Amino acid sequence: MTAPSSTPAIPAESARPLLRAHRGFQLLLTGDTVSQFGSQVTVLALPLVALSIFHASAFQMGLLTAASTVPVALVGLPAGAWVDRMRRRPVLIATDLLRFALLASIPLAYAFGVLTLAQLYAVAVLAGTATVFFDVAHLSYLPFLIGRDRLTEGNAVLQTANRGANFSGPAVCGWLVQAAGPVGALVVDAVSFLVSAGSIGAIRRSEPQSEQAARSSLRQQIAVGLRYVFHDPVLRMLVASGVLLCLATTALLAVQPVLLVRDLGLSPGLYGLLLAGEGVGGFLGSLTAWSAIRRLGTARTIWVPSLAIVPFVLLMPFTGHGWLILLYPVGSFAFAVGISMRNVAQLTYRQSVCPPELLGRMNASMRVLTWGAMPLGGLLGGALAQWAGTRAAMWAVFALIVLALLPVLTPALRAARD
Q1: Are 189 and 39 in contact (CB under 8 A)?
Q2: Distance separating alpha carbons of residues 332 and 17, to the nearest angstrom
Q3: What letter does residue 262 receive in the DSSP assignment?
Q4: Which of 371, 373, 407 is nearest to 80 (CA)?
Q5: Span 11-40, pLDDT tens digits
């Protein structure tokens, strides 16, 4: 069945084995994978710094999660307009170097005995701001670097590598935290951004700077990006679903260390090992996404895997002592499989149909409209865990995950293959 006429078709992938020999793509892949590995260290180590050194409450943990995601809402839209005015590769390098300096400041302050919870909040906000610019520039740079006819392959390879880093990152970080402490583990993250900056800096292909974007005001550019997103029916569905999904996943980030480390008493090493289940699922989901898109089409790959994982995800609130602890990695594994396949499909759609001069603003608009819910999700998860208990918070999280499926189950999307 063909897609509605308002939905542009996705270009077919070329059979030429270009990406294996594409030096620029391999360098981008290396830098992004190393950076993702280090970022997983931050996701695990920064909350453990707050728990172990400052004995942070559940609500303070929620604030820390919110601090790392609030930049999406604050600077996401102007970031897209600015990225469209600039060459993307220098933006990637500069934001990597900034994140290195910010994360390196935590072990440095700890060594001199001046580390505070306020500094953790500040680093989370500033590093989150740099990540907004990096992500928008990265998504907008890929179509230029490899061409639109290989976006499905490129996105699948990048997602697979990133999920591999997501799998190994928490497991390695758990043992790093146990051996060197959470502050020491952050040194690894800081160094990873240096490696990423060096890899991306070695890409030699230059891109032209947009002259059209520079001729209009920042407000006009932002408005054009938002209008493009709301005009496209598939993007509107993805925004509605993404808001609920981001609320759920960020609330989960605030709740899971409280449940697994404080309530169930897991060691940092075992905590990291349990979180690695999500990385394994994401790796396998990304690995099979390219094949799934060829068989199911991009439209069905957006909603079919997400629907299939619901029964497994609902196991997670029953996590407890003994063998019940295994319910958490099983649920997070299934969740990551479905979301990774969906991400490859929706990223390919977005990058394929959007004009090159609008890529930064379109990607930024999508991020702000969906990821803008993340600070609220972090606060919601922390507040629920603090005042209603971790079990109630977990059930609220998974109610949001189920609700997030409804927008992409509309007849228009279910009837389309691509």
Answers
A1: yes
A2: 34
A3: I
A4: 371
A5: 444 434 456 667 888 888 888 888 777 777
